[in-house]
Design brief:
Elements lengths: L1 H24 L9 E2 L2 E2 L8 E3 L15 E2 L2 H13 L3 E5 L3 E7 L6 E9 L4 E8 L8 H12 L1
Antiparallel strand pairs: 1-2, 3-8, 4-8, 5-6, 6-7, 7-8
Length: 149
């Protein structure tokens, strides 16, 4: 009985350490954020990312629709995202980068936006920094942002 209890305790401790290590790793800012050739970068293979750019069209796992909007909508988006817990990292006029973190373990997700004034579209990308799955968090975040607008 003591052996079983020891094994269970060790596994729980190992799991906790793994979650803490992942939380610490998620604090490191990715090197490849920002626009690439005028667009938001493509999602990785893992399903913990959504993007509305043309390179994601036809990809059921990663595609989310862009937001139709003008300059007023682009300006309003700033307060909507901050009201939902997003913190501004970069604001370069037609490109914005925000971070969101989970309440308990403080895992960080990146939300990037690009305003295409010519087409009246706001392209969005939301991605978890670590892990493979996000349990629908990025999709829920995008849905909440779109509904708030």
């Amino acid at each position: 009985m003591k052996t079983v209890l020891f094994v269970v305790t060790a596994l729980v401790a190992l799991g906790l350490v793994a979650y803490i290590v992942m939380a610490v790793m998620s604090q490191k800012m990715p090197d490849d954020l920002g626009l690439q050739q005028g667009q938001l970068r493509p999602c990785p293979e893992s399903p913990n990312c959504l993007c509305s750019e043309a390179h994601t069209q036809g990809d059921d796992v990663h595609f989310t629709a862009p937001i139709a909007g003008d300059k007023a909508m682009w300006d309003k988006l700033q307060s909507v995202i901050q009201a939902q817990g997003g913190e501004v990292v970069t604001d370069n006029g037609d490109y914005r980068h925000y971070t969101f973190s989970t309440p308990v373990m403080h895992y960080v997700d990146d939300v990037e936006l690009r305003f295409d004034e010519a087409s009246h579209l706001i392209h969005i990308r939301s991605a978890s920094r670590i892990g493979r799955k996000d349990f629908g968090v990025n999709q829920a975040r995008m849905d909440n942002i779109k509904q708030a607008l």
